[in-house]
Amino acid sequence: MARELKTIDISNVPELLRIVEEVRATNEPRVLRRDSEELAVLTPSPKRRRRTVRAKTKADYEAFRTAAGSWKDVDTDKLVAEIYESRRRSFR
User: How far does the chain reach from its first CA to its final CA, in angstroms?
Assistant: First the structure.
């Protein structure tokens, strides 16, 4: 669905760089126009938040290990049948 956009380095185009910095600072889009024709819309890029990855602790590893085999007493065929039955019934 989302496609990669082509990039243009504007480091050496001071006037365009000034406009881009203004859009970024105000967080308001601008229409680029030549005479009376609108050519493009310059919008601020959405801020991407970096997801911080927490270091795994000894307790994390222990919890992982204790979960091993926890489904051994579950009748998985019955569980799957119950899930499908639940999905078949509509509660909306």
Answer: 29
Question: Which residues are bridge partners to 30 per DSSP?
Answer: 42
Q: Which pTM value belongs to this model?
A: 0.46
Pick from 8, 9, 31: nearest CA to 19: 31
- 23, 29 Cβ separation under 8 angstroms: yes
Q: What are phi and psi of 55, to 5 degrees?
A: -65, 140
pLDDT, mean of each 10-residue run, the chain (92 residues):
81 92 93 93 85 91 91 91 88 66
Asked whether 60 and 81 are in contact (CB, 8 A), the reply is no
